[in-house]
Design brief:
By secondary structure, the chain is an all-alpha fold. The chain has a domain at 24-61. 82% of the residues lie in helices and 0% in strands. It has 3 helices and no strands. The longest helix has 22 residues, at 39-60.
C-alpha cells in the first residue's frame, strides 16, 4: 500500500489514486463514459485490461 503525500487537494487526489477500491470506481466510471463516447476504442482498452487481469491470475496460480 502506498501512502499519498502532500496537503489539501493533492492529498485527497493521492488518497483516491492509492486506494484500490477507489481506483476501481474511477476505472469503471471511465469505461462507462468511454462506451458512450467511443465504443470501439473502449472495447479495445477493456480487452487489454482483461488480458492483463487474466495474466495476473495465472501468475498467482
Amino acid at each position: 500500500m502506498d501512502e499519498p503525500r502532500g496537503h489539501g487537494l493533492r492529498l485527497a487526489a493521492g488518497e483516491l489514486l492509492a486506494c484500490p477500491f477507489c481506483m476501481s470506481a474511477w476505472v469503471a466510471g471511465a469505461l462507462f463514459c468511454g462506451y458512450a463516447a467511443a465504443p470501439r476504442a473502449t472495447r479495445l482498452a477493456a480487452g487489454a485490461l482483461s488480458v492483463v487481469t487474466i495474466a495476473d491470475w495465472l501468475q498467482y496460480a
